[in-house]
Amino acid sequence: MSTRKAVITGVGGYVPKDVLSNHDIEKMVDTSDEWIVTRTGIKERRILRGKDQGTSVMGTEAAKEVLRKTDTDPAEVELIICATTTPDMIFPATANLIADKIGAINSFGYDLQAACSGFLYALTTATQFIEAGKYQKVLVVGADKMSSIINYEDRATCIIFGDGAGAVMLEATEEPYGVIDSILRSDGSGAQHLHLKAGGSRRPATIETVMAKEHFVYQEGGAVFKYAVKHMANVAATIMERNQLSSENVAWLVPHQANKRIIDATANRMGLDQERVMYTIHKYGNTTSATIPLNLWEYESQLKQGDNLVLAAFGGGFTWGATYLKWGYNGS
Ligand code: UT7
């Protein structure tokens, strides 16, 4: 059996400089810093402002950083997969725009939409390209400008989301590090609880859809919360069991950051204390496809070669999943 694996060799990240704090939101809707922190764990989030600034702006910065850190010539990148729910345009793909901006002249690229599980879907897909033997270097980007689809008059959604991007370089290796296992799931019946009503082919944009605010995220928070807690904890526990992982030998849980209570429930189920859980939710909120690579970006310096990482996510679709990987290098 081939020992060829796909390993992360570097991480890049980008968050816009503009901060939207809970106190700022208190001036926009009927809410309080205390409610938001207690119910979600979020203190502030970043917002990408400026004319014609789309998701690719952030994805490009994250990609440039990972190219620099891994000393990679952009012409060597063979494939770019961009997980996003907020592409710059319906077409062309944001991955193509990023490829152009970073000078990845020999790559092909496409976008992948699985809402908050997008990065795990993209990482798993990229792993298949590498394990199949034809590809050596794949850039996986998770990027979302959630502020472009949020109604800042809706206190149930505007408190949660933020903008950001993360990127990882995935390379072929014969070493015993890299992606080992992955479980991906979806259930389209969950669409009723979390979706964007208009702007797609079913309800193209009209004056009526704009007036009815149908181009903003619709979320039944309580229903989504129940599914998220159940599925994210279950899938993380399943991937541990089938890889004979115990709470002692998992170094880090790398969870999607939607609500600190969902993260804590997953960690509890895995038997992990908070010191082994990556949290960025307090400062970035829920950046959808970007939360997991932004976690890796923030915690990179604490990671050691051989660390067992369990990545887990749940999001719109519904989609959910977990990935088990062995980290490939020592943080600085
Ligand atoms: O990442 C993609 C998937 N998304 C998720 O995983 C999100 C999952 N859901 C959640 O994180 C939580 O459901 C929310 C943070 C969205 C909401 O928290 P909750 O504890 O589930 O609140 P709720 O929706 O059950 O509302 C409880 C109360 C309601 O008031 P009443 O009816 O009890 O009087 C709401 O109107 O809290 C009220 N409320 C707020 N109060 C102050 C809802 N939003 C706010 C707010 N500030 N921002």
Keywords:
332 residues, five-stranded mixed β-sheet, Peroxisomal Thiolase, Chain A, domain 1, binds oxa(dethia)-CoA, alpha/beta, four-stranded mixed β-sheet, 32% helix, 11 helices, single chain
Please provide a written account of the structure.
The protein has about 325 residues and is α/β, with parallel strands linked by helices. The protein has 2 domains: about 5-175, Thiolase/Chalcone synthase (Peroxisomal Thiolase, Chain A, domain 1, 3-Layer(aba) Sandwich), CATH 3.40.47; about 180-325, Peroxisomal Thiolase, Chain A, domain 1 (3-Layer(aba) Sandwich). Helix content is about 30%, strand content about 25%. It is built from 11 helices and 13 strands. It has helices at about 20-25, 35-40, 55-70, 95-100, 120-130, 155-160, 205-210, 220-240, 260-270, 280-285, 290-300, and strands spanning about 5-15, 20, 45, 80-85, 110, 135-145, 165-175, 180-185, 195, 215-220, 250-255, 310-315, 320-325. The chain has a 5-stranded mixed beta sheet with strand order 1-7-6-4-5, sandwiched between helices. The chain has a 4-stranded mixed beta sheet with strand order 8-13-12-11, sandwiched between helices. The radius of gyration is 19 Å and the shape is globular. The site of oxa(dethia)-CoA (UT7) has 20 residues, from helix 2, helix 6 and helix 8.
Order of helices and strands: EEHHEHEHEHEHEEEHEHEHHHEE
**CATH class descriptor name of the largest domain:** Alpha Beta
Helix content: 25-40%
Can you tell me the number of structural domains? 2
- How many angstroms does the end-to-end distance come to? 34 Å
Low-confidence spans: none
Major beta sheet, strand line-up: 1-7-6-4-5
Q: What small molecules does the structure contain?
A: oxa(dethia)-CoA
What is the CATH architecture descriptor of the largest domain?
Answer: 3-Layer(aba) Sandwich
**Please, how many helices?**
11
What is the molecular shape?
globular
